[in-house]
Description:
Blueprint: E1 5-11, E2 14-20, H1 26-32, E3 51-54, E4 57-60, E5 73-75, H2 88-95, H3 105-118, H4 124-131, H5 142-156
Amino acid sequence: MNNELNFSFTVNGREKTFCFPPEATLLTVLRDNGYTEVHNGCETGECGSCVVILNGVTVNSCMVLAASAMDGEILTVRALGDVHNPHPIQRAFAESGAVQCGFCTPGQILSAYALLTEKPSPSDEEIKQALDGNICRCTGYKKIIEAVKLSAVRMKGDDDE
């Protein structure tokens, strides 16, 4: 007997139906269906590599049962932009040197996006709080914080670029 579930989600603005076992995490379902920008790091909710925005809230997708996200709206970093048309946050991360190996970058960018959507002019402490739980082993956090600050300026249109 097949105990797989069929559920619909809206991923990056497109409605999708996925088939998966009841115990599947949102991370597994997304990756199994081609959303490889959602990285599989620790599978314990510690590293932030698997961050997505689910119904407007950043979540570690490795800690969310996919069935609990039924009919949910999911954003991955792919929804923001790509190499040909990057979002201001993606561009600021690249220009600030906040990207090295890139493994943590999608989670960092989505966390920054969620923050800047709610608080266009965050303080350093608010930036640090928003990025808490996103582990970077390459760059340290100084350049990442600088990238978020630059993103805030650009998203408000205060940049002379």
